[in-house]
Amino acid sequence: MQTDIDPRSLIGRKAFDREGTKIGTVDEVYLDDATGTPEWAAVRTGIFSRDAFVPLEPSELVDDTLRVPFDRALIRDAPDFGVGRHLSPEQELQLYHHYGLDVPQEDGA
How distant is the alpha carbon of residue 94 from its chain centre? Predict the structure, then answer.
């Protein structure tokens, strides 16, 4: 995803899965502790549902919407850590594994 975007501009955008089905609305954006770049978005999945964390890489901004390249079911089954709190390294690792993504290597590792 574009790394120079203001994370606040993502909040309130509609999010869609890879089939084009609406997932929900971006509720919060979580930044990488080391780089400050947007890394995760919490998407409110429905009126009575919770927020689901989705990776911003490899997601894309398309026509003012967030396109997440995963199935809706996988997104809804993502680990629930609650919103408004810092994601620990262990929680991020769980999310990377859930989505089958490579864990980013830190510089100097």
Answer: 13
Q: How many CB atoms lie within 10 A of CB 58?
A: 12
Q: What is the pLDDT of residues 9-48, one digit of tens each?
A: 899 999 999 999 999 999 999 998 888 889 999 999 976 7
pLDDT digits (tens, 9 = 90+) for 65-74: 999 999 999 9
Which helix (H) or strand (E) segment holds residue 55: the answer is strand 51-55
Q: Tell me which residue has tokens 């398309």.
A: 62
This model's pTM is above 0.85: yes
Coil vs helix vs strand at 28: strand
Contacts 24+ apart (CB under 8 A), 58-61: 58/1, 59/1, 60/1, 61/1, 61/2, 61/5, 61/10, 61/13
Q: Beta strand pairing status for 38-44 and 14-16?
A: unpaired
Instruction: State the DSSP code for 100.
Output: T
Residue owning tokens 């606040």: 8
